[in-house]
Amino acid sequence: MSVRLKNQPVAVITGAAGGIGVACCRLLGRRHRLVLTDISADRLEALTSTLTAEGYDVAAQIAGDLGDSNVQARMAEATRSSGPLGALVHTAGLSPSLARWDAILQTNIVTTAQILDQFDDVAGEKAVYVLIASMAGHGLPRDDARDAVVDAPLQPDYLERVAVFLRAIMNSNDDAALTGAAYGISKRAVIRMVEARAAALGARGRRIVSISPGTIFTPMGRAENDNNPAAAHVVQITPAGRWGMATDIASAVEFLISDSAGFITGTDLRIDGGATPALRGGAIF
User: Fold this and answer.
1) Per-residue pLDDT at 4
2) What is the DSSP string of 226-251?
3) CB 57 within 8 A of CB 283
4) What pLDDT sits at residue 281?
């Protein structure tokens, strides 16, 4: 039993069982039905049970790899049958300590573009898409040739074409050395994807924004801090003097999908405690 009415708008949250995802579930679930996805069936089931026991309306849960077109289709169909889409909050992604460079590019860029395309026929007017990028996306110098390749994630041989730039950035052919640069490129691509899609979505009454977190005290953030000296350095020099919390990001998401943010689209919001300007002039991946 839910304490909410069934005609409330739907919020789709990917990576729902992660730190930022859970925080978004709790805030957005106060005014939305929830369609949740996560790669871990066990974690998703546990989260759904907890939220349901607390009175949240979980309309659907879809476990699986978002890179799988069948999972994407199930997610869209579950949304279509659950009510009008109010928000798509895409928190799922891979960081350098979790995956190889190619998996990072595939998940953070290609899958993100596929999901946005999948929801093109599902979302109605006033739907808002919020994509989680990263302050790492602000750490690369401008390169028009690189951006032209990276901005076309559905082209053939995409990963190898991007890898040419990764190897040039890192001056290495060692795949293990490419993960940090791949992450920075992938998050810059998310930021640029938001800019590129804003006009077409706006013509249909929709908005799209990205959020670039700094170091956030989630399991993924702590893993990066423990395994990546560059990430640990970010925590140390952050002017705010603390880690970010998942609720810092979820609160911004809640604002961005609200009518109060109705004039905000096609842009990125950095929530990094001031770390990006503190690091300006040096690489952050």
Assistant:
1) 55
2) HH-HHHHHHHHH-TTSS-B-HHHHHH
3) no
4) 47
> How many other CB atoms are there within 10 angstroms of residue 54's CB atom?
11
DSSP label at residue 106:
I
Answer whether 0.85 is exceeded by the pTM.
yes
Phi first, then psi, for residue 226 (nearest 5°) are -75, -30
Nearest to 208 by CA among 84, 115, 81: 115
Q: Please name the residues in contact with 174: beta carbons below 8 A apart, sequence gap of 6 or more.
A: none
Strands (E), the chain: 10-14, 33-38, 58-63, 85-90, 128-132, 207-213, 267-271
In the chain, the amino acid numbered 143 is: D
> Looking at the DSSP assignment, which residues form a beta bridge with residue 208?
129
Whole-number Å distance between alpha carbons of 230 and 79: 39
Neighbouring CB atoms inside 10 A of 203's CB total 8
DSSP track, 158-175 = HHHHHHHHHHHHHT---G
The pair of structure tokens assigned to 67 is: 């890179």
What Å distances lie between residue 186 and 5, 51, 94, 130, CA to CA? 39, 32, 10, 16
Under-50 pLDDT residues of the chain: 281-285
Domain boundaries, the chain: 10-273
**10-273 placed in CATH 3.40.50.620:** no
What is d(CA 108, CA 14) in angstroms, rounded to the nearest whole number? 12
Q: Which residues pair with 10 in a beta bridge?
A: 33, 85
Alpha carbon distance, N-terminus to C-terminus of the chain:
46
How many CB atoms neighbour CB 245 within 10 A? 16
Contact between residue 207 and residue 129 where contact means Cβ atoms under 8 Å apart: yes
Distance, CA of 242 to CA of 207 (rounded, Å) = 31
Q: Which two tokens stand for residue 54?
A: 């607390």
